[in-house]
Amino acid sequence: MNAEENANLSGALRRPSVKKNVAAIHVSGKLTLLQRKLSNVLLLNAYDTLISRSTHRIDARTLCMMIGYNSNDTESLKASLRGLAETVAEWDMLDEKGRQEWGVSALLSFAKLKDGVCEYAYSPALAEKLHDPKVFALINLNIQRQFTGGHALALYENCFRFIGTGSTGWWPLETFRRLMGVDGSEYYESYKHLNAKIIKPAVAEVNKVSDITITPEIRKQGRAVSHIRLLIKRNPQLSILDIDDGAGLRKGDVYAQLRALGVSDRLARQWLTEHGEDYVSEKLAYVSARREVKSPVSYLRRAIDEDFTAGSDKPAAPETPRAKQLKAVQDAVAARSPTRRDADRALFRSRLSDAALVEDFDRHGWMSALNAKAIFAFWEDVEPGIFEAL
User: What are the boundaries of the signal sequence (predicted)?
Assistant: First the structure.
């Protein structure tokens, strides 16, 4: 995933060394791995309209694929959605005036499946907290998919947000057990068991598959371990995204140009983070010079992904019936969130059995000539009636 996710959705703790406490939202660590992934994908899908819309929608099949379910396994999806609706999110933070605020809400206020679409909502109070860029950090869904253990993903999420300070700070063991979802277990009251079964395996997996490396340290009271903290560093071998809450990127002229063109806030920051201002500015100039382009955001996406240059032989497609279908596909892709775009590509790619077709799709994406017939059939299935007006 380039993609954003909710590193702080699952239990960011206040740092005592910071004068103004950073927002802390705690979600039960008892979520299963798939429920945790589901929660992240739902939040990422909704993030751009988290405040402006009361409900959010995503293809159920896309959702299943993103979290590792069989696309027809609606019963498991229902069970996971039920689990999220029954899970409590709790926050405890200081507002801008230094006043303490505590709140509690169901993680999802409702969810329903109808006609192949999952519709869901957050409570207004929780949505406001989740939309705060200090709470919502960038998480790459490609990294999330690598995790096979729920404890490892929970540990990653709870450590990731502290990458800027290099340490989580000291957590009482009881807090750590709660974040890992093993509070209330007599077996894990023993630090020996907690370390052997939870800490060591989770740390090893985070260090192996993610973009950070963590090192646990303990503090004792007498002979018993009482606190734990995690030291955090970037993993240079797997680092995919730079952390940026958007404050810096939003001040630039290139960001302003992207937004004026109609690019979403999150996608604009994603492009600038991945490619840099100079590269994106070059592609903006390229697209602006092509007055015949009727869908500039879609065309800009192609220009960025395929590195169009002034010498590129990439004329806008003539308005033939096929060109109109291609434009409809481009518009449909542009209207979807980054999460859903990634899922659509992965789902379509998984259906290609011929290596040549896969290679052509990897090279040209939805504009793949070899896959045009299959692409049109796919989008007609995803969005029935997409080509009727043509």
Answer: none
Tell the residue number behind the tokens 């993680």, with chain if given. 107
30 or 282, which is more confident: 282
Bridge pairing between strands 212-221 and 56-59: unpaired
Closest among 12, 40, 37 to 26, alpha carbons compared: 12
User: Picking from 44-53, 79-88, 129-138, 191-200, which range would have the lowest pLDDT averaged per residue?
Assistant: 129-138
- The single-letter code of the amino acid at 257 is Q
Give residue limits of the domains in the chain.
25-234, 249-382
**pTM exceeds 0.70, yes or no:** no
Q: Can you tell me the mean pLDDT for 28-37?
A: 70
Dmax over Cα atoms in the chain, in whole Å? 79
Structure tokens at 76: 């498991």
Which tokens go with 128?
């406001």
Inter-CA distances, 10 with 174, 202, 207, 210, 352, Å: 16, 16, 19, 17, 36
**CATH class for the domain made up of 25-234:** mainly alpha
Backbone φ, ψ for residue 244 (5° rounding): -155, 120
Give the number of other CB atoms < 10 A from CB of residue 138.
25
CB 340 within 8 A of CB 3: no
| 3-state SS assignment for residue 255 | helix
pLDDT on residue 243 = 35
Q: For the range 220-224, what are the long-range contacts, defined as Cβ-Cβ under 8 Å and sequence gap of 24 or more?
A: 224/191
| Number of Cβ within a 10 Å radius of residue 212 | 19
Q: Measure the CA angle with vertex 377, ends 331 and 361; round to 5°.
A: 70
Residue with tokens 């490892």: 152
> Which residue stretches of 117-216 are H helix?
124-131, 141-144, 150-160, 173-179, 191-194, 200-209
- CB under 8 Å to 183, separation ≥6 — which residues? 29, 174, 177
Specify the range with the lowest mean pLDDT, choosing from 16-25, 55-64, 242-251, 348-357: 16-25
